[in-house]
Structures are given as C-alpha cells and as structure tokens.
C-alpha cells in the first residue's frame, strides 16, 4: 500500500533559531492525519530539528547526500552521517541540485544506490523544463530521468523509494501544473514503472507532486487518484500554510 506524504523542502532557508520556532509551531498545530509529514531543513540544522521534534510524528529528512561512504569530499555529507543523527529519509535529484550544482543522472543514480544500500528511504525528484513541456517532449524527459536514475534498482528496494514529480517550470514560480496535468504525468510514471518492473511496484510507490503547491490549490491537486501527496517548497516555510496543506490531504 502506498502512503500519503506531505514533505516540506526548506532549501537554504531558516537559521537554527528559526528552525526551532517553525518546527515547534508545526508540532503544536499538527492535525490528525493518516499522511506522513516530513520537513527537510538544511544540514546544519538537522540535529537541532531532530531534537526539537522528539516525540512528534513529524519526520526530519535530509535534502541531499553524497554517494561516497567517506573521504576527501569537502563540503559533503554521507549516508552514515545522516543515519548517525537519526535521519532515515533523503531527497535526491532535486532540480536545483541538477541545474545549479551540476548533478547528472549518473551521479544521482550513484546517490540513490548509496542511500538504499544504507537502508535510507529515498525521495527521488525529477521533472521537465518549460521548453520540454512546450515542445511536447515532457514524457520522454521524465521517462529518461526514471530510467537513468532508478531502473537499475532491484525490485525489492522499491519499497524504500518515493517519487516526486516536480516540473521545473512550476518550482518557485507560482505557476502550478493543473491537477489534470499532474494526474496525467503521474499515471504515465506508474505505467512506465509497470512496464519496466510490474504492476505491484507501480501501484505501491508513492508519487508526490511538487511545484507551487499552496493552501489554495493543494486540495484539488491531492484529490487526483495518482497524486499521493506533495513536496512543498515556499509554503512549507510558514507553519499555517504548511498545516493547511497537510489538512488538504
Ligand atoms: P515551491 O513549492 O516553492 O514551488 O518548491 C517546490 C520544490 O522545489 C519542492 O522541492
């Protein structure tokens, strides 16, 4: 059974004291929900967030990690470092990692394998650029991203994989994919996985939508049968907005 998930990707926002304020407010206001709720603060505030959220149902997750076990990788973080502070889930392949930090499909595939080998859960992000959507090439792009990033995985590790479809043109732009566009792509993603693996893996994987999800559009997007939740950027930085999005699921 796939789970519903609402995850807040804080990106490079919030100091430690701001992190404390936000997670404390979220924990206090968290509604009863059958969805998994996650927040992804920046690295240096992960330990703090884990402590502040002790006893809360909100999971603290990481925004990124390196594929190597350890070594001379200045500025990087390993899977063991995340595990060592109680982190069990990591986002990999966010479009900002791809476009700003040059992470290729090959690098991302290595990261996914490294995370899964350590039994971390992976939220794998992918999505097309505006030109791809305009030229009608978006399905090909997404299918290639899935193939390059994930289709070398053994079927049994798919229970630790969550997908996040984030069309780049909708990230931080205020422009959202319509609920129909999200549903259409999520159906395509499931069909692509089913063709490569089988129906059971395709049906059981959670597929989140990300890109300008806000309190006023969340419910409509989440109402689509193949949308299992959201990866939320800007609106996850405000407790009331994030709580409203959680309520929408
Ligand atoms: P926004 O919700 O700010 O568009 O960001 C989406 C995102 O990139 C989540 O990872």
Can you walk me through this structure?
It is a single chain. The chain has 249 residues and is α/β, with parallel strands linked by helices. 41% of the residues lie in helices and 14% in strands. It contains 11 helices and 8 strands. It has helices at 16-29, 46-52, 79-84, 95-99, 105-117, 130-134, 138-150, 179-196, 199-204, 218-222, 239-248; strands spanning 5-9, 36-40, 59-60, 89-92, 121-126, 161-165, 207-210, 229-232. Strands 3-2-1-8-7-6-5-4 form an 8-stranded parallel sheet. Strand 1 (5-9), helix 1 and strand 2 form a beta-alpha-beta unit. It is globular, with a radius of gyration of 17 Å. The model has no long low-confidence stretch (mean pLDDT 97). The structure holds 1,3-dihydroxyacetonephosphate. 1,3-dihydroxyacetonephosphate is lined by residues 9, 94, 166, 171-172, 210-213, 231-235.
Outline of this structure?
The chain is an alpha/beta fold. The chain has eleven helices and eight strands. α2 (46-52) links the parallel β2 (36-40) and β3.
Question: Which features characterize this protein?
Answer:
8 strands, alpha/beta, binds 1,3-dihydroxyacetonephosphate
């Amino acid at each position: 059974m796939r789970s519903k998930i609402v995850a807040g990707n804080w990106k490079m926002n919030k100091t430690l004291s701001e992190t404390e304020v936000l997670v404390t407010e979220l924990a206090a206001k968290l509604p009863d929900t059958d969805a998994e709720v996650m927040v992804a603060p920046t690295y240096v505030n992960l330990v703090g967030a884990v402590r502040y959220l002790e006893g809360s149902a909100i999971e603290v997750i990481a925004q990124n990690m390196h594929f190597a076990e350890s070594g001379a990788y200045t500025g990087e973080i390993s899977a063991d470092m995340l595990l060592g502070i109680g982190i069990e889930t990591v986002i990999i392949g966010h479009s900002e990692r791809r476009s700003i930090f040059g992470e290729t499909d090959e690098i991302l595939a290595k990261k996914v394998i490294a995370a899964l080998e350590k039994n971390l859960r992976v939220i794998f992000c992918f999505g097309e650029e505006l030109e791809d959507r305009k030229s009608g090439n978006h399905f090909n792009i997404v299918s290639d991203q899935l193939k390059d990033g994930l289709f070398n995985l053994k079927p049994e590790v798919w229970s630790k994989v969550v997908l996040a479809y984030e069309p780049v043109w909708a990230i931080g732009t205020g422009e959202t994919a319509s609920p129909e566009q999200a549903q259409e792509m999520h159906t395509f993603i499931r069909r692509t996985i089913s063709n490569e693996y089988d129906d059971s893996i395709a049906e059981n994987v959670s597929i989140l939508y990300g890109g300008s999800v806000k309190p006023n559009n969340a419910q409509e997007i989440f109402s689509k049968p193949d949308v299992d939740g959201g990866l939320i950027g800007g609106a996850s930085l405000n407790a009331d907005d994030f709580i409203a999005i959680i309520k929408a699921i």
